[in-house]
Amino acid sequence: MVAVPNIKLNSGAEMPQVGFGLWKVDNPVAADTVYNAIKAGYRLFDGACDYGNEVECGQGVARAIAEGIVKREELFIVSKLWNTFHDAERVEPIVKKQLADWGIDYFDLYIVHFPVALEWVDPAVRYPPGWHVDGKDKVSRSKATIQETWGAMEGLVKSGLAKNIGVSNFQAQLLYDLLRHATIPPATLQIEHHPYLVQEELIRLAKHEGIAVTAYSSFGSASFDVFGMKQSVGLTPLLENPTIKSIAEKHGKEPSQILLRWATQRGLAVIPKTTRENVMALNLDCTSFDLSEEEIATISGLDKGLRFNQPPNYFPTEMLWIFG
């Protein structure tokens, strides 16, 4: 089994540097996928309310524990607070629901999914609630502030429902705003990060503040092609990029491993996803070799400032307020 290094968080906890992302893992295969990933050596699983598969992912975990493959304390399970639950009184109840869905007593890390507060949707009416309050096309904001939401997140740590808390899709100004009032600083910042979107200054800021960075969408547009985004038109996919392929050939590795090593060698955590067991093993084995400093710089030089995961890319113009 591949040895995966850990990243020490500002809470003192240790988090596996290579984990398994659960976005777009279809419900019918989610339990088997998680089970197989545990057998392959993955210990960190990155889920979310919005992914709609937490029950099935929990079934995969339960099966692996029941068979003695892993103990609960050996796993690092991550989930996220969806936008419709930012009001302080909504945070703890939804976390308890998500924990029940997973079949566990606590999250190792619980993250604010987006810095976006939307009107509450009763889980009994629709779950996951998505972006629209009516389930169709109406977007309605909540007045919950980041300070209010983060205070409730800190309450999760005090009550033992989450061992660590963090944020996702926050930029520098929002991080600084949060840090002004936080009594428990975010342990992690999860961001879209790949050679077409390097975000070096944001990463430097997070590291300066002692916040670990987790990269998602390490393979660029691969997860977003289904949305038909205009950014992908005429763009060479990262897995087919000649620079990446050349470096991969030099090291006798797959392009995916090069992309993951480029991130992990620079101190970031990664959460690639696949349902193919042979690819699971390849992705997990992305820290057993090193790139040269020149290769890292060359890959970073591919930066286009090209962001795929922002709602204006696949929602109506009425939602442009979300990201400015």
UniProtKB/TrEMBL annotation:
Superkingdom per UniProt: Eukaryota
InterPro entries named in the record: AKR, AKR2D, Aldo/ket_reductase_CS, NAD(P)_OxRdtase_dom_sf, NADP_OxRdtase_dom
SUPFAM superfamilies assigned: NAD(P)-linked oxidoreductase (SSF51430)
Annotated site residues (Lowers pKa of active site Tyr) in this chain: 80
Recorded GO MF terms: D-xylose reductase (NADPH) activity
Keyword Cytoplasm part of the UniProt annotation: no
Pathway(s) the chain acts in: Carbohydrate metabolism; D-xylose degradation
Active-site residues per Swiss-Prot or TrEMBL entry: 51
Keyword terms, alphabetized: Carbohydrate metabolism, NAD, NADP, Oxidoreductase, Xylose metabolism
Binding site for substrate: 113
Domain NADP-dependent oxidoreductase as annotated: residue spans: 19-303
Family: Belongs to the aldo/keto reductase family.
Name this polypeptide is given: Probable D-xylose reductase
Source lineage: Eukaryota, Fungi, Dikarya, Ascomycota, Pezizomycotina
